[in-house]
Amino acid sequence: MRYGFIFSAKWLRYIAIAIIFAIACALLANWQNSRREARNAEIQRIEANYSAQPQQLDAAVPSASDQLPDDDDWKHVTATGTYDAENTMLVRNRPLSGQPGYFVVTPLNTEAGPVAVVRGWAPSSSDPDPSTVPTPPSGTVTVDGWIRPAEEGKADDNTPGTVKQLDPKVMNGYEGGYTGLYLQVGSENPQAQQPLPTLPKPSVDPGSHLSYTMQWILFGLMALGALIVAIVRERKAIAERKSEENTDYVVLEKAAIAHGVRASGSRYGDGRRRVKSGRRDRSAEDDEDAALDSQGWG
Questions:
Q1: pLDDT value, residue 230
Q2: What is the number of structural domains in the chain?
C-alpha cells in the first residue's frame, strides 16, 4: 500500500492536528464574515436614515415605552419640549477625538413624555459635576437629531451626577417617557448661550472583516496543503530508501560473483564458473612495474 504509512500513530496525529486547525480557521472565517455582514447592514442603515428628512419623534416612535427597533437606529427626527436642567447627568468614559470625557444628557419634556437628549460632549475632570457644564436653552426648544437605542445599565453603576450606561430606566427624570432610546443632538432652536461640542457623524468604514475572513480561509488551506506536501514527500522518501536497498543488493551480488562466490538461487545460474581463488585483480602497481620493464628499468 503506497500510502499505508499515514495510518501510523505519528501521521494520524499530524493529520488530526491539521484538520482541527483547518476547522478552527473555517469557524473563525465564518465569524469574521458574520461580523462583516452585520457591519454592512449597519452602514446601509446609517446611510438610509442619517440624511433622510426628519420625522416628528412621536410619529417615528409611536409608543414611548417601546424598545427602538434596529431599523430605526440613526433615524432623523425632531422633538419639541422644554429641558429639565436639574436632571442633567454625565455619562462616563465617552472619549471624543482621543480625549477622555462625558456625554452631557438632559431630559427634554415633550407631549409624549420625557426623552433623554445627548446635548453634546464635555471633557473629563477630577470632580465631575453636571452643574459645571453649560446649561441648555430655556423655554420651548426644538431639537433636531438622531435616535439611538438605549444602553443596558444598572442603578448600582451610577454615582451622584454621573452614570456608566445611557439607560433612561435607571436615570432620574424619565418616568412615563421614552425609556428605550435617546436622542443625539444635531442642532437646537433656539441655541444655548454656550453650545456644547456636538458628536460627529457615525463612521461608515466597513473595517477589516473581509480581509480577516480571507486570511483565516488562507491559513486553513495552507495547513491542509502543508499536510499534503508532507505526505507526498514522505512517500517519495520511502520509495527512495527502498530503491537504495535494492541497488545495494544487486551491487553486492555482482561483487560476490566477480570473486567467485555463487549465491544460492542466483539469477546467474548454478552452473556459472567460479573464479580461481588465487587470482587477484590487476592493480596500479602492476601497471607501473610493466611500464618500467618496457623501458629497461626492470
A1: 94
A2: 2
The list of the chain residues with pLDDT below 70 reads 1, 65, 246-298
CB–CB of 26/220 below 8 Å?
Answer: yes
The verdict on residue 68 lying in a domain is yes
pTM above 0.90, yes or no: no
Q: Which domain holds residue 21?
A: 4-48+207-233
Please check whether residue 109 is in contact with residue 82, taking contact to mean a CB–CB distance below 8 angstroms. Answer: yes
Does any domain span residue 110?
yes
Cis peptide leading into residue 190 (ω within 30°): yes
Cβ neighbors of 109 (< 8 A, separation 6 or more) are 81, 82, 83, 84, 177
* Distance from C-alpha of 73 to C-alpha of 91, rounded to nearest angstrom: 20
Residues 92/75, Cβ–Cβ less than 8 Å? no
Beta strand 181-189 with 113-123: parallel, antiparallel or unpaired?
parallel
199-220: b (≥16 Cβ within 10 Å) or e: beebeeeeeebeebbeebbebb
